[in-house]
Amino acid sequence: RTSTLLPEPLFDERRLPDYLSLGQDIPAGHTLRKDELPGSDIVNAYSLPQDLLSVLLSHLSPARIVHYKTALLAGFSMAARRSAADGLVCCHIRHGRLDLAVFRSGKPVFSNSFLFSNRDELVYYILFVLDLLGMNPVEQEARFFGDTGPDDALISYCSEYLGETSAEGMK
Known about the structure:
Elements: E1 3-7, H1 16-23, E2 30-36, E3 42-49, H2 50-59, H3 68-82, E4 87-94, E5 97-104, E6 107-115, H4 119-132, E7 141-146, H5 153-159, E8 165-169
Parallel strand pairs: 4-7, 7-8
Antiparallel strand pairs: 1-3, 2-3, 4-5, 5-6
């Protein structure tokens, strides 16, 4: 899951190793790649095991291979552009992991992943990020994806702290 989001105007492909090694170790045997986030000026730089890449390319050679965060943010971006709210909080929940992205006026302003073990930790991360961004939680629209559903107790709990809340999960 080694990945870093960068502004496209500042991105220089020759510096890819520098970007990734700044905050994380690049595992041995990994190749460095980048994806451009559609409809934005963001580049997702990441590493991928070379063995995995070779297998994928040998079996799926015409397919475009992208990092999961690129695909996730592309989907979130579509939701943000369709949202009437000025602020949109997108939460993808899966196996105790929260992928959180925040949008203002349809543009991404924050993205990160957090591990959580209970509902209080989940709400804490969301509220902490919104506080850092100077956004009032009850004024933001929040959408939950992944291991959630409309009747999910976790989403119901989160809705006590956030504005309009919906679950578009797969349960």
